[in-house]
Amino acid sequence: MWRVGIDVGGTFTDFFAWNEEDGSYKTAKVLTTKDDRSRGVLQSIETAGIPFDQISFLMHGTTTATNSLIERDYPDAAFVTTEGFRDTIEIGRQHRKALYDPYQTKPKPLIRRRHRFTIDERMSAKGDVRRELREDAAREIAREIKARGYGSVGVGFINSYANDAHERKMRDIILEEAPGVHVVISSDTRPVFREHGRFTTTAIRACLMPIMTHYFDRLSEVLAERGFTGKLLILKSNGGVMGAQNAKLRPEELIESGPAGGVAYASYLSIHAGFENIIHTDVGGTSFDVSIVEKGEGLITRDHELEWEVPVAVPMLDIHSVGAGGGSIGWVDEGGSLRMGPQSAGSTPGPACYGRGGTEPTITDANLVLGRLNPSLSDKFELDKAAAEAAIDRLAKKIGLSRLETADGMIKISCETMAQAVKGVVVARARDPRDFVLASFGGAGPMHACFVAQAMSIPQVVIPGAAGVASAFGATAMDMRHDIETFHYAALSDVKVADLNRLYDRIEADARARLAADGISDDNMELRRTAQMRYVGQTYEVETDIPSGELTDAHIPQIANAFHAAHEKEYGVSNEAFEIAFVSLSVTAVGKMKEPPVYDFSGQQSVESHATRSVYFDGTWHDTELYDGKNIAPGARMQGPAVVEYLDSIAVIPPNCSGEVDKSGNLVVTIGN
C-alpha cells in the first residue's frame, strides 16, 4: 500500500508517495486545475501511476480555504451577535497597519453589515446572566435568516467564553426554524476572551463551512469512483492532519494547510539530517512562505492574521507568506519604478514561456532569459524562450533598460521581497538569522535561495533532493493533531489546582474523542498540556508547558519557573517579582502515525558535470557547469557558478558560493561574500 501526500498550490499540484512495504517512492507535478482542484489531485495520482485502490492514506494540503477567504468567494453567511457589537468584526482593534499612511483602508469585512443581526442579551465576564435571551426575538431573527436563504450562520455573543448558554439556545432556535443551515457558535469555535478574534474566527468557520464541505464531499466522491478505499486526511495549519469529516466541521484550521507540509519536511530534515535550526522557505508559482523550525518543531503562533485586522484565533504554524513566486508578474508603478507581484500568472494562463496564452513577464520568464532555467523544464515540456523575451522586452521598454537588465532586476527585486519576509519572521521571534540554515523548497525555491541567504547573512543553504515536492513529502510525515483550548483567568498565587485538574480533564477527554473520531487508538495518543500565561497587566500571553497528570500545589513553583523561562526566550526578559496569571488552558493531542523511511535522494555518480550553459550573473555571462541532481553521489563538491537540475526543481549556485552533497542527497551550499 502507498501513503500519498498531495499539495495543491496556486500554480502546481505536487505529489509524493512512499510504499509502506518496501519504502520506494514516486513523485509527480502537474498544473493546478483552478476550476475544479479535485481534477488536479486525480491527475497527479494518475501521472505517478499508482492504483487508487493501493492507497492507504491520502494526505491532502489545499489552499482552497485561504483563496476563498482572500477573494471573498463564498456564499453569503449571516452573523448573530449581542446588541451593540454588530460592527466588531469590521471595527477591529483600531490598529493602523502603517502609522503615517492616511490613505490605508481596511479589508472588506468577512460578513457584510446587512447580513449581521443583533439581539438584546448579556452575560457578564464571570458568566452571570445580566439580560436573558428573549425567545421571541431569537425566533424572529431565525425566520429572517430562513427567508433570506443563508446557508450558514455564525453566532457570537459577548462573554460567551464564560457562559455559552445563550449561544447554544440561539443555535437551537435557528436549527428549529431553518433546518439544514450550518450554524456555528463562538464558544465551540474558540472559547477564549477578546471578542474580536473569537468573532472573526467564528465568521471564518461560517463562511468556509459550505465551501469546504462541498469540496471534500466532491473529492471523496471522485476518489471513491476510482476505487479509493483508504483514509482521506487533511493538512492543518498547526502542523498536523485530521480526517475529512473533522475538517468539514473546523475549516478555519485549514488556512495554512498548504504551507504546513513544507514545515513538516523541514522538521524531517532537522531530525534526520542534523540541522538543528532551520529557516524554512518555500517558493511556488504564486507565493513565498517562510517559517522557523527549531529542534524539529515548527514555531506556533496564536496571533495569525489572514489580513490586516482579520485575526484567526487558533494555534497555527508561524508562517509568513508574500506574493513572490515563479509566476509573479513584473510591472511598472505610477512613479516609473519596476515592481514585482503580488499578482501572479498562476497556472492559467501561466508565465509567457509556458505557451498557454500568457503575455505578462514573470519570474519564470526572467530566469529562462538569464539562462538559469532549463528550457525543457526538466523534460516536462518545452518552454517558449521567444515568448519570454518578448514579454520582458515590453517591460524593458517602459523602464528604459535592456532585456537582460530588466530580467536581472526582476530577480533581484523578488529576492529582496523574499529576504524581507525572512527578516520579518526572525526579528518578530527574536532570532538571529546567522544561527540558522535556510532550507529551500518548491519548484522555484532553489533558484533564488542563495541570493536570499546572501541578503540576510545566512551562512548555509540546504536544498533537498525532493525540494520541488517538499510540501507533498512533508504531508506524508505528519501525525494527527488537535489543539483544544478553554478560558480560565486566575492569578497563579490564587489559582485552585482542583479547577485546573477539572478543566484539563475535560479538554483532554475532548481531545481523545477527536483523535478517536480520526481512527487513532488509545495507545497511539500523546497529550501535551500548555497554558497561555502573562504577567498581570500585560496585553499578550506566552505559551507555557504544564506538567501532565494530577496537579498539586507543589507544581505551582515549577509552572512559575517554566513561564519565566518561556517569556525570556520569546522577549529576552523576565522578572520574578511580577505577579503571573493564567489566561487559558490548552491541550495538544497527537495521534502518532507511521513515519516515512529515511530517504537517500543522492545518486551514485561522480560530481562531473554533464554539460555547460551560459548563465547571467551580476551583469556578465558565465560559462556555468550543469549537474544532474539525481545522479550526484554523497560527498560530491561543486564550485559556483553552477546549476543543479533535479526532477522537480533547479538549484542555482552563484559565483563565490560552493556546494556539497551530504549523505542523504541534500545539497548544502556555503554562501560566499
TrEMBL record:
Domain (Acetophenone carboxylase-like C-terminal): residue spans on this chain: 497-663
Record bears the keyword Hydrolase: no
Top-level EC class: ligase
InterPro entries: ACX-like_C, Hydant_A_N, Hydantoinase_A, Oxoprolinase-like
EC number(s) on file: 6.4.1.8
Keyword Ligase: yes
Listed GO CC annotations: cytosol
Example of a GO MF term: 5-oxoprolinase (ATP-hydrolyzing) activity
Keywords: Ligase, Plasmid
Domain annotation Hydantoinase A/oxoprolinase: ranges: 198-483
Biological process per Gene Ontology, one example term: glutathione metabolic process
Stretches assigned to the Hydantoinase/oxoprolinase N-terminal domain: 3-177
PANTHER family: 5-OXOPROLINASE RELATED, HYPOTHETICAL 5-OXOPROLINASE (EUROFUNG)-RELATED
Protein name: Acetophenone carboxylase gamma subunit
Organism: Pseudosulfitobacter pseudonitzschiae
Gene name as annotated: apc3
